[in-house]
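Bench notes, afternoon.
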Amino acid sequence: MLIDTHCHLYFDSFADDRPAVLARMHKAGVTGAVIIGIDAATNEQASQTARLEPGLHYAAGLHPTSEFPVEIARDIRFDAAGYLSPWLDSATALIAIGECGIDLHWDTNPLKLQQLVFQAQLELGRELNLPVIVHTREADDETRAALEAVPGARGVLHCFNGSSELLDFALAANGRGDDWYVSFAGNLTYKRADKLRQTARAVPLDRLLVETDSPFLTPQAQRGRRNEPAYLVHVAEELARLRELDLADLASQLMANSRACFGADWE
């Protein structure tokens, strides 16, 4: 049994066959998923989608490449609790903050504002004892600085493809009680991903998670198709091969990690 710890099942690309996607997910042995929002509109979509089945949960946040509310730039502040209040207080409350972080590839928003928005969400996660889903792209140093600035925050370095320095910091932080998990997605299976596979061998077993980031990052065996949670098995199989583990044993550890990170009672 596996948990897809990061997917976007509310996307329009799933609109015509979402029930079939969920059926294939279960048939593949993926018993649950965390649906990730990236702004106010998709946070609500994630919340609604998570209500379809008991094994679905969701996270809500403000992504670094999403459109920031104009008052952030005007006031140079971000009220994370206020922004996320509809999903903090709902009957089906979120189980994580994010996706949030720093992205200097697209550079949609100024770095100063990205840092402001990210730190506010890290602080909210720490305050509420909720995991934070961290996105970082071409911003390893900036991401590390943000994590250092909020000791006690915990969560997931999602779809990890970062530097050894960022990885070392996250793993060292676990010794201080800041529980950071490292999640791998379909790009682990790509032909030219040797460096990423080397990284996946280095992460302690009790800090590993897997995800699809669907509909993105389709595993090599399904390239050319829309990604979906059923394809998570390809990521787990590659990880088991790299770690020289039986897939069932690895899946058991990944399930334990998913429960520990998110606090969800997945069966």
